[in-house]
């Protein structure tokens, strides 16, 4: 704005003039227009604008009162004014080439001369190692040491001579570029915040006026005119050069007015204009946007403002808050505001023949990389397109079948169409292998070039170098683009067509559709032919371009997103319970939306491929979720639980961004912050692709992918067992490699990997498992072995051996036999079979040699044994004598010796049984040593002496294990009745003992003695009724039998014997006193149980009341919704938990190593009935629960029989008393049940005491 006679404030909302304050009225600027402004700064804290004039005045313009105040003046005039980024300091450059540092209140801090003879505080130190003549000078050679330093030429005539000032982003340092009065060349000096010189740049010929310090603080940018090129160069803070790139102009063609970094240091804007060749000639102005990636500078956008006077650029600056917003002001008062964002230009097709092309704009070149063929980091590429002008936009064809075709829009509004077709003429604009890289791919050719209407600055026309934006290739020769409307808040959608309708190479404007709003992004769905438009106010419009209709779709709470349609063909996204189209959007603040619902808040990039949505996050992860049969709630849950490790989540490098996903492959291309590329194979994509291949019976592709990416090969079968078994021959023919088939065998496991390691998606079909009870590994081995034997048994000999070895029970004998059979066959050189030696060597690789030797010995084939032993490390002196000894033995005894050596005792026992009676003692010893009694009994008929001998030995073995009853049965089978009698006596089987006594011919006296002995043992076991039977029937002592029945409370049986033997006197002497004594005992027991139950119940109520009071007191001290209040229950409290943890935590650690008896004792100690104990309420519940089963005993036959006896003999009053006592106890318990075991306790499954007690009562 140096040539304008006033200060203008432009609104950032609608770009209209709101204030006009004249500087000529008060005399700050002369009215003839000779004065000019050298600096202007907006001070929002003071609500004013600071203006510095060339005459030396520093003026504050109040925006609210429109008052002007001169806060200072410099007599020598001012050339530059620059405020620090924090607006705490202001630096003035005077006409006397001095620097004045002032505070924001315009109080001087210090003043320094610009031109200093000293280098500064950062001066380099020479340590004196060697002379200049002895140093290495690189490619310049030794002559460089003797070459005199050339003088730096003066600045270019196009240099305006004014000093330039730029601050570092943190405001700690400031760089000043000024022309040295002695040499006439520019130098850059770096000063501290206190104006202390830090460094001076090295002499650089051709250094120009532009200067910009990168906000991140690493580099200072300037320009240098070299003999044959024009460069942008970079300085370090110490004044040394550090990198450069060349501007795409010839020497002397343009001059650089300014360099400007955006606020996050990612874009460098270069403002250029043509040098005037003649006095009255018009000059073009340009703005170029450069970015760096992988140490290469790219020209991403080039804006040509033309040569018209009104379109001449007079001011350019980046927005201080929004990183990618660029403001430009033209001389004709046209204000332009550009919002840029990063986008990835990639082909969108998903067919198998596509190559996943990604285009990168690099000035007048388009670098295209086909990621399906090769993954190379930029600036390398597969091929490049050379254009005549700088490229601004690239659009791939949206038709999935033609997505390798692309259209290029350059800075002169020309559209170049490149197609992949049958052209045989080599296109000179297409070059293979940029930067030395070459790949054999099908390249496109330039088919035609269209022009768009010229942009002029006539009346009613607006200046906009970027006339078309959001350029989209819809169909063949049909394009969609957006331009600015007549109002700043309006846009126009243009339908442009080429082909026959394009006259003179100009695109035909088919129609234009105005949009009430500023379109900031769009995306096209080729399936539905719908275009989603997003406006700056947040509205999403659905534009049906075939019908030329605009429908309001929704309003979303996000801006500046990257839009995509979420619904690929055949993959419904369920929103609010029904499938429909959806819009995916990502804001510049990393918030990811589906329509108007925020799904995640830390997403840095996303891509949709097939049924999957892939995102990268700030937590340095890449997540892949399926959109098939899903909903927004499910997606939100998936992203919120991203810390859970599973196949959908993987770690990536910090700052990774998604570039593209290669169609029909598993490659995901990521770009790192520096610019290099990384290829990852996301587990979710890999598994999905493998499942597709398996469904299509493409076993070879699936196997190679799984082998390469280390996916367990069990998935080949587990994905669909039935289909695999039905197509085993197809699998073998496709793999067609013995090594690969053997690899598959070696990885087989019984585990179902679709349920453990690789769980199938919810939407996948139900996996069909084999119906038979055969194990998985055995089933696969048998099926594949049968198929290989059917196809070519010689070729797949090693795989057949592997199938035998890998079974759950390895069939090593069969495998060895097959190897042995190969010894008799010859293999021709043309055949694909293997020799016996090779097969045996392979078998030794699978199985331990000692194990294989043992199994070969188990085949009883000594030739096979020798063949295996020769391949092992065994000493012939060790195994040959052993084999010779075996050859001399009888065949059965030989097999017995081998089986015993191999510890196959069952087989050895079978062979030994055939060796004759002379080896029976050895047979019996083997049976006893190995406990093979059951097997031995089967080898001899039951009536043979050998069978009886084995049986007696078996019985003795059972006696030693205290299994007396089983031993007695075995002895009885072998006619060893004496031993059987002893065994039955030990087991208490009195019936069997009496049977054995009968078989032994016992007399009556012997039977009576035996009966009395057995009765005594039964009484000890409280089996009085059985003891009475023995005394009555075998000892003939009915009186003793009656007394035993009375002792055992068998009242009715005692009455039967009394009347049977007509001993009614026993009724008076023994029976009646016994029932009266029993009645009194039951009354005492009931009374004690009732008293104990009442005492425990009352104490339980008191304990619960105390704990409730404690809980209420705790709640009173806390907030009404404290977390601890929800954790309290009827049976515990905070005090109880703390006491218990402090008292028992250490003791439990000691008790854990003790016996179960001690652990039960410790458990009882914890549940103590002592008043005030921590778990007293639980102990009371346990005690009350024990009382109820005891009371329930009165409902059994004992009391019922006693009551009948009392009534029978007229003891009505004692019977009534006992009945009433029983009913009172039961009623007390019944009334107390709900009081003791409340509803909460009954519904709580964690309380076993209450559950068991209630079950006992009911």
From TrEMBL:
Residues covered by the ELP1 alpha-solenoid domain: 683-886
Q: GO molecular function terms here?
A: tRNA binding
- In what residue span(s) does the ELP1 first N-terminal beta-propeller domain sit? 29-321
Q: Which UniProt keywords apply?
A: Cytoplasm, Nucleus, tRNA processing
Gene3D superfamilies in alphabetical order: YVTN repeat-like/Quinoprotein amine dehydrogenase (2.130.10.10)
Which pathway does this polypeptide act in? tRNA modification; 5-methoxycarbonylmethyl-2-thiouridine-tRNA biosynthesis
Q: Where is this region: Disordered?
A: 136-164, 1139-1169
Could you tell me where the Basic residues compositional bias lies?
1156-1168
Which PANTHER family does this one have? ELONGATOR COMPLEX PROTEIN 1
Q: Which family does it belong to?
A: Belongs to the ELP1/IKA1 family.
The name this protein carries in UniProt is Elongator complex protein 1
